[in-house]
Amino acid sequence: MTDSAPGGTLRLADDLVISRMGFGAMQLAGPGVFGPPKDRDQALAVLRAAVDIGITHIDTSDYYGPFVVNELIREALHPYPADLRIVTKVGARRGQDGSWRPSLEPADLRVQVVENLEHLGLDALDVVNLRLPEHDAGEVPVAERFGALAELREEGLIRHLGLSTASGAQITQAQAIAPIVTVQNMYNIANRADDALVDRCAAANIAYAAYFPLGGFRRLQTATLADVAGRLGASPQQVALAWLLQRSATMALIPGTSSVAHLRENVAAANLTLPPDAVAELDAIGG
Predict the structure, then answer these.
(1) Could you state, in order of their start, the residue ranges of all structural domains in the chain?
(2) Based on the number of CB atoms within 10 Å of its own CB, is 121 exposed (0-12), middle (13-18) or buried (19 or more)?
(3) Other C-beta atoms within 10 Å of 133: how many?
(4) CA separation for the pair 179, 161 (Å, rounded)
(5) Helix (H, G, I), strand (E, B) or coil at 119
(6) 216: closest CA among 276, 285, 165?
(7) What is the Cα–Cα distance from 241 to 256, expressed in whole angstroms?
(8) Distance from CA of residue 42 to its chain's centroid?
């Protein structure tokens, strides 16, 4: 493993340091994040390359596949490097047709944690995010669900907790129960509804893990991004990732890919410094 992590590191707790440039393992499953990968050897190679590059932050879930991705991670990387931190999610299951089904009952959350432990080959999970339903406008109360995970933290099966697709109100509810170290929400240049939450996380030293870094762009916005990328000699995706890294000191990225070449291209974004004029132009996309 290289000595320096791409994009630097975040120390979120005494025993939790992660690379800001992480790896999202979702795309290692089959189409629709369901079933086995098209090329198993390539999937294993991507995971090993991520660690070799210096990434110490892998994002996953047992419902990717389901179970497929966690089993790939275990096959590729177990026994795990001492500094590797695996962040997983609970709160959903998959139907036999590949559908995504919220599963937030406390009893099943406990089962999901145990399944993650088994499939990853771990005695304790570094971080578990409670994945809340999207588009619920903060209406799903988190106390009972998050409380179930907090109990597992007290039992030693989980070291740290976080939330995914959460509102500010839900984060406040969770923090009244136990500390959180991560928030994993959709955020990118064009979709900046979470601006205040990004700043709140930075002030509290909570990692904000942005997913969907290139999603939701209109044609004009895509053209602006491509123009900036052309001037900087980078790809639009690299520019979008670099903008996110510069947006907040506690921003963490989890771009996913099933290609080693694409992985290296994503990681190269950590070395791209955007000049002030480019940042101003990109900021205007979300205006």
Answers:
(1) 9-285
(2) middle
(3) 13
(4) 7
(5) helix
(6) 285
(7) 12
(8) 21
Q: How confident is the model at residue 254 (pLDDT cuts 50, 70, 90)?
A: very high
Query: End-to-end CA distance of the chain, in Å?
Result: 40
From the list 64, 80, 208, 211, the catalytic residue is 64
- Considering only the top CATH level, what class is 9-285? alpha beta
Peptide bond preceding 66 in cis form (omega within 30 of 0): yes
Q: For 107-122, write each residue's pLDDT tens digit.
A: 999 999 999 999 999 9
> What span, in angstroms and rounded, lies between the C-alpha atoms of 166 and 129?
10
Asked if 60 and 87 touch (Cβ cutoff 8 Å), the reply is: yes
CA distance 271 to 238: 10
d(CA 141, CA 147): 11
Tokens representing 188 are 């990118």
| 64 counts as catalytic | yes
Please give the structure tokens belonging to residue 154. Answer: 């007290």
Radius of gyration, alpha carbons of the chain = 18
Burial-class residue 203 by CB neighbours within 10 Å (0-12, 13-18, 19+): exposed
Q: Tell me the two tokens of residue 65.
A: 């596949």
Q: What is the pLDDT of residues 164-209, one digit of tens each?
A: 999 999 999 999 999 999 999 999 998 999 999 999 999 999 999 9
